[in-house]
């Protein structure tokens, strides 16, 4: 089968490669992330609780100071995390598909007006997904940090020191998420130039500007 790399010398092709790479980084850093919360208590044996994707947990971790009853470290931000990861996976799959179209069916892409329109519309939807998914996961990450905050747990738990591992990789995931939104949103201009909307407008402008004899 013949292929062409012409599209990858244009912004629309280059943007797809960048989107492919950063989609992988975004969902992999979230799906593979875990945080360890270590409790060193006088009254009980030391323990380490691991919180990982999809970040739905409820565990008895210590005795609460104020009530002398069992304290449960609990949170459920799975919907935010799963939506974010699903957006990354869908974006990855679409990038693979459209890169194949650019490489093997670029003539069809340029000759059929429906194909660039579909590409533009799907990219618009995924850009919206990246914005809403990143915002939702940012809120979910804040909730996760609050629940596992060492100072909060230290003040809550009776005679316990608490150490929580770093969230730096999850912070990177959030930055990449908003970067993905920027990549998908900015790509809309290049895709718009391939649609019949832009080309028809250009043709009308040229017709209006042509002097009559």
SSE arrangement:
Layout: H1 11-31, E1 34-41, E2 47-52, E3 56-63, E4 70-76, H2 78-104, H3 106-111, H4 114-147, H5 150-156, E5 160-164, H6 168-192, H7 196-209
Helix pairs in contact: 1-2, 1-6, 2-4, 4-6
Taking all Cα atoms into account, the compactness measure Rg is 25 Å
Q: Beta fraction of the residues?
A: 15-25%
How would you sum up the global shape?
elongated
Structural class: alpha+beta
Strand arrangement, major sheet: 2-1-5
Distance between the termini: 49 Å
What does this 3D model show about the protein?
63% of the residues lie in helices and 16% in strands. The protein is built from seven helices and five strands, in the order αββββααααβαα. The strands form two sheets. It has a three-stranded antiparallel β-sheet. A hairpin with a 6-residue loop joins strand 3 (56-63) and strand 4. Helix 1 packs antiparallel against helix 6 (168-192), helix 2 (78-104) runs antiparallel to helix 4 and helix 4 (114-147) runs antiparallel to helix 6 (168-192). It is elongated, with a radius of gyration of 25 Å.
């Amino acid at each position: 089968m013949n292929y062409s790399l012409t599209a990858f010398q244009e912004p629309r092709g280059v943007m797809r490669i960048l989107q492919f790479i950063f989609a992988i980084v975004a969902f992999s850093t979230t799906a593979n992330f875990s945080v360890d919360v270590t409790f060193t208590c006088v009254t009980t044996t030391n323990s380490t609780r691991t919180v990982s994707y999809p970040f739905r947990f409820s565990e008895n971790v210590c005795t609460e100071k104020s009530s002398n009853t069992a304290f449960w470290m609990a949170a459920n931000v799975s919907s935010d995390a799963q939506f974010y990861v699903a957006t990354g996976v869908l974006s990855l799959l679409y990038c693979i598909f459209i890169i194949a179209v650019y490489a093997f069916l670029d003539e069809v892409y340029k000759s059929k007006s429906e194909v660039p329109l579909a590409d533009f519309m799907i990219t618009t939807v995924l850009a919206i997904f990246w914005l809403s998914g990143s915002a939702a996961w940012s809120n979910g990450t804040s909730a996760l940090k609050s629940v596992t905050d060492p100072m909060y747990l230290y003040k809550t738990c009776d005679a316990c020191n608490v150490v929580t591992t770093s969230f730096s990789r999850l912070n990177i995931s959030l930055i990449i998420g908003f970067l993905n939104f920027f990549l998908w949103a900015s790509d809309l201009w290049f895709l718009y130039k391939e649609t019949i909307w832009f080309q028809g407008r250009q043709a009308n402008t040229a017709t209006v500007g042509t002097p009559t004899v």
